[in-house]
């Protein structure tokens, strides 16, 4: 699976990784600059490594299965994990957290723009919707990474419409969704969906649903009880 979108001949993943690694001809952290004939810079001058700042800061959120069982209202168990604003911070976090295939069944892991909560009730999300792609259990790791890279690397033409993404881990499948701000902006929603499929090299159909419709479906399911009182 490869990203078709590229910058200067590099794939999205290569471009972002390259920006976080000191390349040939660049000053490495701790490197002494200048030579004996260069009197403009002290031979002991150390040039610090400058972080590669992202256009937006992003926050990882986690909703564990154990916490969900204890929650009194929907969404109350979601907790922020960490906020990052540079390429280096992203890779430091990503390389030290579980991939979707290693998360417990029932877990939800989110990456949203800073100060946007991954909840229908958030004012920025309230009038939006989401694109969703389903994968067999244990098969979404690469697509999850490429989705994150496309978002934080501002690869979507309508990136301002994007709130964030979530991976839902279930018994037989894993679902990745991209949440958007304004579901009635059909042109932007279609553009995001098409580009996402291109980034993931995904050829199957994908679905979009308004958050309002998802809320109604969730409400019906929550109020459907079997005789023993257990929600279906």
Automatic annotation (TrEMBL):
List the PANTHER family: EUKARYOTIC TRANSLATION INITIATION FACTOR 4E RELATED, EUKARYOTIC TRANSLATION INITIATION FACTOR 4E1-RELATED
Q: Which Gene3D superfamilies match?
A: RNA Cap, Translation Initiation Factor Eif4e (3.30.760.10)
What's one Pfam family here? IF4E
- Single annotated GO MF: RNA 7-methylguanosine cap binding
Q: Name one GO cellular component term.
A: eukaryotic translation initiation factor 4F complex
- Can you tell which superkingdom this protein's organism belongs to? Eukaryota
Q: What is this protein called?
A: eIF-4F 25 kDa subunit
